[in-house]
User: Fold these one by one.
Assistant:
Number 1:
Amino acid sequence: MESAPPILKVDNLSVTLDGQQILNEVSFDLNRDDTVAIVGPNGAGKSVLFRALLGLIPYTGTVTWAKDVKINYIPQRFTIDKDFPLTVKEFFYFKTKNHKTIFSALRSVGITDEHHINHHLINKRLGWLSVGQIQRILIAWAIVDQPNVILFDEPTAGIDVGGEETIYHLIKKLKDEKDLTILIISHDLNVVYKYATSVLCLNKDLICFGAPADALDPSSLKALYGEVTFFTHHHQHK
Amino acid sequence: MSSPFILQLIIGGIIGIGAGYIGAFMIIRRMALVGDALSHVALPGLAVALLFNVNPFLGAFLALFIAIVGIWILEKKTNLPSETLVGIFFTTALALGILLTPEPELLEALFGNIGNVGQFDLYVTLPIVALIIITLILISKPLTLSTISKDLTRSLRVPVNAINFLFLLLVAAIVALGIKVTGTLLMGALVIIPAAAARNVALNFSRYSFLSAFLGGIAATSGIVIAHQYSFAPGPLVVLSGGVLFLVSLLFKQ
């Protein structure tokens, strides 16, 4: 059966930064509407992969996106001080001044109370929000101009576990509502099993790629994290 | 009130507004100290301009331009943090400037003298400050956004490096102009203080940047008026006025 053309085709992607090889000949294809989790230990090149896919850093090999893609990116690091005088409204105004569109994006990330938005959120400084709130605003900001691809770098960094569940829940909800291909860097393999349609394991080389249940076999987990995996969890009881 | 004094007020006010507005962006980009140190680089340029009888603004701007490009290149080639580079480059420039500047003009170069401005200075100042403000308004979105995240901004296909460079050129231009008002040693203050005060008071960015420009204008003009009244040097009083405005802003801190 002839399948639809991939939304992203990556061939022999290698990245060397400051004389150090970060990614080595990584190749994979992504299909439209996939939710792809990218897993791997710290320093495995996950964020670098995103930056290469976005064309932000030099690389060798080829990265080919489908012609109609509109990609939005949520990076890992933000510097929003409490003192930064930028309100939520002004942040959205960078993309659109249409309040209907902004409210609809906020609704999609679970901020539905219009009274709350108008009186407590929209004119608040971005830096005054909690990490979880900022995360939701960033996701809303990422979807407000209707992308069909979102690259999401470690959305759970700095959020407690309770909040973590909801962010992934949100992403799943978004996907159910819209035509979206999502690439998400994740540390939590449970989340990968629960929400991802495929998983891409990275440790400089591409270790595995496929449906989570097939791809994450013991040998690829070992290649990713060494002997001790997330599943062999030892306790010392005294 | 004589017309040369009115001219001083107008020129000082325009420069204050420009410095305040650009300062709003420098503060959020955590460039407060860069602005301060950068102003010292103007001194050798000023000295060379004095020695060869060229317009001091051009000399100062050229020195600042060379410094900015120098830092730009060194940062890329050596991987030293720009803080270190700024520290080395700018103190060296100050030392060189002090040696080169003819003694009678040294005090004026260091602390400014708006007293000797002429009509021609207005014709130079007004269009340059207008151009600075218009350019800043045009690039304000990527400037602000790249402060939050450089990668995010670049992912939106914004040429962040080019915009940063353009921004530094604007900083150089306002510093070169401002030397007339406060001198090379104190120019950093005219850029930093109004923005720091505005940030205490304003909740959102549009009010913050407007207020910063406004306070810059107020600091400059009130300093010049007080200096005129009591026959002090205007430069230090402009900075002191800014300091007072900052203290007052603390009372209204958000």
Number 2:
Amino acid sequence: MKSLKSPSDLEKLRKDILAKKDPKRLAIAACVSTGCQALGAQKVLEAFDEEIKKQGLEGKVEIKETGCLGFCEKGPRIVIYPEEIYYFQVKASDVPEIVSKTLISNEIVERLLYTDPVTGKKARYLSEVPFYKYQNRLLLESNRKLDPKKIENYLAIGGYAALAKALFQMTPEDVMKEVKDSNLRGRGGGGFPTYRKWESTRNALGEPKYVIVNCDEGDPGAFMNRALMEGNPHSILEGLIIGAYAIGSHEGFIYVRQEYPLAVENMETAIKQAEELGLLGEDILGSGFDFKVKIHRGAGAFVSGESSALMTAIEGKVGEPRPKYVHTSEKGVWDKPSTLNNVETWANIPLIINNGAEWFASIGTAASKGTKIFALAGKVNNTGLVEVPFGVSLRDIIYKIGGGIRNGKKFKGVQTGGPSGGVIPKQHLDSPVDFDELTKLGSMMGSGGMIVMDEDTCMVELARYFVNFLCDESCGKCTPCREGLKQANKILNGIVSGKGTEEDIKKLEKIAEVTSVASLCALGKTSANPLLTTLRYFSDEYEAHIKEKRCPALACKELISYYIDPEKCKACMICHRNCPADAIIGEKMKIHVIDQSKCTKCGTCYDMCPPRFRAVKKVSGEPVPPPIPEEERLIKRAKKEKRD
Amino acid sequence: MYEDRIDKIIDKYETEKGILIQLLLDIQHEFSWVPKEAIKRISERLKIPCSQIFRVASFYTALSLKPIGRHLVRVCVGTACYVRGAPRILDSVENKLGIKSGETTSDGKFSLETVNCLGCCALGPVIEIDRKYFGKLNSAKLEKILSSCN
């Protein structure tokens, strides 16, 4: 394709691409994002390749690779065009049937459609699937229409029209005003108004100015940035170029964690294609505006997601934060004014320019506008990416979209905001989700991770997990974070192993206070949130651990014991064979008994015991029942007796 | 024997500013670790003190200063995987391979690491072996996957 020299060149190319599209053409689109890949999407694609040849359809069916559609739980997912039939949990062995039935005879393979677990109804269209029905997918919607490696696909859905509009019909000031009026707030965690960051860099002295995409996504449990960058890299790039134009920057960086190789690859391809078409580089679309961008891979450090640390990392140094008396928007990369926004923030920009600030500001709550993508994970039925307008309640997200808690268990809490956030309990399930509401509850929005926990998750252990995580990830530069977290970790380790004392809670609260006030960067300042929210909402669990040496969730290894219920054991030998510690005494026809002195409490027997027996039990805070005497262990089965 | 390969990687970046981390990541990708020779060579050619390179290499988790085994097993212990039983998976891998996280088996076949998040949170627990992801794991699946590594 040749370089575009004007907006009309762009529109002409778009028309050409659309004219070549045959809406009736048979096509298979498969999600090849990391999630579906982990479930075997590649094998499904290979099977299609082979089967299409075998059944004589070569050249008649287009195979498209698209980005993440969000419903990872039910992957691998494919769509058959032109009918738009969605098949979920497709295996390579299903492929011959799909080809012969759906592609050749235009029949639906019913069993691969989504089945509503409540009504048992099959969903013929995507809009009938509850997971999608209640979402408003402004950002994620395009993922299903695009092959992220093809810029033509992005152009076909109106891509880069916002860039042309900004460059030719708007001054940088107009763009600034639009972003200001839209009330867009940063999607990376803090919810800082995007406009203010931009303005600060725009007005700061010093050249060059930098614009940066933050795709560090270090929050464990969040993967919306990965899905956007893997699935629709051009939307981020377009937003970035528009931002650069408004701010007066000619150089940008895209910071991507190296744990996301596919995101890096797709973004590299996107940059190359945009450069070839003259949408990036010198004299973009003949406007006279120049902008170039480079990818910087992050080498794995949670703290490097913090703005000043990320910028130091871009300079090739150890990514540690610095005090921010002077904001990075004024002195950032190499001490030059730098604006850093999250992937999702940048991806919103083209939407705002195309549809106007008024439209954007009409979505969401009074102070949080637009939609937000959440990564719904943990003990919920439908895990995946959920995009909803701000203001939707936690209950709607977890129950209506997420389909409730797995295996009929009870909801205990939902953790939002990653290690900087907190756990929100049942009584606040009806709270609307926006930046300020979550902060009020002691948690935060963070980048949108939402991990649901049921009765089997121990809240003290969860607090220990986060504090331990942060302890590992603390860069060690400031004392409150480095030493405070270490001490808190020690105390929590004591509590979960039954060595807690009543002073521990007070000590933890004191440490939390100091780290939140005196730490250098946001990692330390927010590090107490998981601890404080669990102390606030689940103090009974702390007390049970400390006073009764009991773990109510039956999760803390040191406080639980396993035993086999002699009434239920069928002497099937499964636990006996699988016990890594050889702690199970038993043989065929003899009820098994756990030797408590050898048991390492790994839980293998608990997992392995067939669900129809459920003979392995857990207890905490009480002794295990004594084993039944040797002579009573023999099982007499009715059938055998008859034969005798 | 490393020199040519190291030089080739340095050639790609030599004139650019702030590329140390990118360079080290490429070295890591090429050799699966960062050998001493690479640090020396980078220091010579880019005029960066060895100590500074070592500091960067030891700070980031993606860079390894020890050689790793033929297969790199990374167990995700991110929150989503964690609540869905990642500690149990880690225990089983440690038991099966007879090593702890951060170690390599004596025959050099496996190295084991934990990782904070692989971004496949909807499919937890997840592990990654040699850059391939495996989701919705349980002990039986794990056994099959590990024994398929030669």
Number 3:
Amino acid sequence: MKVDRETLQKIAHLARLEVRPEEEQPMIDSLNEVLTWMEQLNAVDTTGVEPLTHLSAERNVLREDVVGEQLPRGNALKNAPAKDDTYFQVPKVIE
Amino acid sequence: MSVKTYDSLSQIQNDLAVGAVTCRGLVEHYLRRIEENRHLNVFVAVYAEEALRRADEVDARRQEGKAGRLAGMVIGIKDVLSYTGHGVQAGSRILDGFTAQFTATAVQRVIDEDAIVIGRQNCDEFAMGSSNENSAFGPVRNAADTDRVPGGSSGGSAVAVQAGLCLASLGSDTGGSVRQPAAFCGVVGLKPTYARVSRWGLIAYASSFDCIGPITRSVEDAALLLEVMAGPDEFDSTVSRNEVPAYHALLKENRPLRIGYLREGVESEGVDADIRQKTREALDALQALGHTVEPVDFPLLQHVLPTYYILTTAEASSNLSRFDGVRYGYRSPNATDLESLYKKSRTEGFGDEVRRRILLGTFALSASYYDAYYTKAQQVRRLIKDATDALFAGYDLIATPVTPTTAFRIGEKASDPLQMYLADIFTVQANVAGCPAISVPNGTDRTGLPIGFQLMAAPFREADLLSVAGRLRQRQEVPA
């Protein structure tokens, strides 16, 4: 079995998600089912094959580095759940 | 004013020209249709007053002879496309109350040509799903049978066109999300070549797969919308600088093409018998139109879906890390410190399927499994792309059904993610290989549910797809 309780909790922490106790077993079962299905790729010989990392054939597009106002601060703060006039607010991190 | 059902913008523009209808009349008509069809759960927001105001503006410009190419086109946009000053939340609770601060390039370009945006359409959360059941706004219903799903993830966008709630929709297609619902709803769905249309302003699911594409009643409207949306954009450096062909004018091209069809599509027991039969009939029609039609094999077909799901969940786990409850969207009231703010906001804000895919992707990208899953899938992706390119050395187009079944019942596959994933078997190849593909209506099964026929072309050969699909569609529209 690839995903057990411990692995599930570890990846959940990495993803900054919580898995409630009653959800653990169904989630473990469904992840393992999908991962086992994904493992059929092991049947494909990929010796010496370069991984395909992007599909666009475009080379880097360069332009002048000029200052613009794409997102004024007021707009950037508009959707924030907690903010003052200048900053996003979060629970205190340093005492 | 009573308004008939239009199947294409050219019909509308003919009637506008002779004064049989106005843009205001059209918007009023669609608003009424939306109101009458609330039970389909298509629109999550309707911009009634704004659309009427825009209609008056376009009508005025028409009087001056200054209207854009899309004057008279009333469209809806999938709830993953940003439109400044309007809500957008990807069918997710985590973006409750979010207002876009800029407009997606694709949306801006159709507005600049005088299309009128009438509202924003329900979809699977973060475009993850094949049934439109994974939405914080609840499921969308197929207008052909309201107990059945419309497909997904652009389910609302497909039903809107199917039920005549707007003339066209803009959706997004990461693994079939435009084509599969188009097939389930009996309308046209086009997924362009990867990087043909700017993704700026599209809420990302899997960035190396995502494409914005139109859903329409006619192939000519799909051609026109692609022509307007495609092309370079300074906000998306991946967009191709290849010249944008005059897709709409090229629809009249009619040279004989070499068309290969996947044997599985007409022979596999896994494909509904009615769909196999209709696919054969469409292939016969292509032959009758003068094209060469031959069977082809694609031995990597069975590996396309697992490759797709490893790579898209990995990309999604990274893309969706930005939803943390800090800068925008939902913030849990139960947080006690910064870490619990992240965790509780994300856990309470995301739905089950999104969390499952984030966990799968995080697993595939985790240090111990990175090579075995993620690198492996990237290698197989190259093999699939190379093999697909090789197919196009011998054939101009590859034909398949869009889906192995017609629309299934709401709830039928909701508890079995793997079964749901298999619904995308024929559509994902185009996304894995970056090719364009189109879904065109291909009759109905014996119970009256729509069937779709898919054509796929080599990258940047949309013109071939559209001209052949257009002729196929015309042929179907002529009563026997």
Number 4:
Amino acid sequence: MLKELKELYQYRYLITTFVIRDVKARYRQTSLGIGWAIIQPLFLTGIFTIIFGNFLKVSTSGIPYPVFSFIALAAWTFISRSITAGSANLIGNSTIISKVYFPREVIPLATVISSLVDFGISSILMFLLLIFYHISFTWHLVLIPIIFLIQILMAISLALFSAAATVVFRDLLFAIPFLVQILMYGSPIIYSVKNLQRQFQILFYFNPITGIIEGYRSVLLYHEIPNLIYLGISFGFSIILLWTSYVFFKRIERYLADVV
Amino acid sequence: MKKIALSFNKVTKKYFKGGHYQPTLREWAGAIFTGKSFQRPQFKALNQISFAVQKGEVVGIVGSNGAGKSTILKMALKITFPNEGSVTINGTATGLLELNTGFHPELTGNENVYLYGSILGLSKERLDLIYPHVVKFSGLKGFMDMPIKHYSSGMLARLGFSIAIHVEPDILLIDEILSVGDLAFQEKCMKFMKNYCRNPNHTVVFVSHLLENIRAICTRVIWMEHGKVVESGKTNEVLKRYIKFQRGKNE
């Protein structure tokens, strides 16, 4: 394990290059370029605001619906992209994998980091939205790094897991985007756990993404300490999944070049 | 005692015929109900193969198509692993299996040198250092800012070869790549290889069907057929019998 991590560190420049390649290749030759990273979440938020904020009047405890949903969408997009891109990227890089050696976990890791670029842009937009809606900043902001760390851990473990699992069951290449879409409705993005009945709130103990999304909302919008049960579940889930996925990933790595 | 750079010990590698294939749901269900696992036809790309390459040696590998030459290189590069037996590698190994594999078509020549170099495990500092040499050797000075999707195949070959040789690994593995590029570049490559092989720290394993290239640089040749070593020994002697064998197949 230590040996593998040391090797991974040696290949840090490769991770950087993969990330730059990912980001550049994603937005090069499009007229809007990096603008896509701004437009996508804003449009989605706009649609959510019209349908769930205005038509259906989802309760937000007094927070303007655009910020309420944008904050959740930003975190959700980052995690869901890590799952779907993680699943597709090992197979998408098959030509390199079957011809050159490098620690293969570089690919899912780079995927997560390149999604971070979009998350960074979303965070700036988020900041502007908070100012626009006159939502004040309190000392609770210092809790953000903790939530962010859990979010990163979760994204990496999910990317590793979906990458390895997709190699074993190729069907997941199609199943994962579909499952992710379902998971979106099962996560508190268009609604908040806070405003659900007690018996429904318990259901969200089974969704580790809840802790992260509601965590950000608590800290930035409601100025309170996040629900530690949800956050603890997110953390515990990420640590356990990170370990198991890494072992799983290392096992399939040995025959990866033969099957991709 | 000379140091061993690369050794294969009773290595067997099996592949499924028709490539890897995913059992369908029906086969899974069938296997569960009948208790039998699904059998798929396999073949042995390498069959209990053993050999060693000393440090500083320049070894050529010849053999018919499908003899297992490329599988050997892939194992030496840690791309794939044996089903049985073991492979020992002392030092770093870099290979040229196909020239443009690490390249990304949307990126420029310059960016691709850094991409490919980093795939081969080089640091940014090291790449900054070798970059001018790579450009000079490839002769692509005016084209480094162009996306490589506009390169010709010969230009790609030049760039790939130039990067790989400047990595200076302990073991350099080359598979059939010198045949691309124009005559002038080929001769430049062979001249470079001859010089490169003279250094006692450079171990080279060279797979090719161009026997004159093998003759030019290899001190020893391993002849393989059907995943086994037929003969290993002095270049000229092995090649003589190998040529006779190949001609015999056409009669």
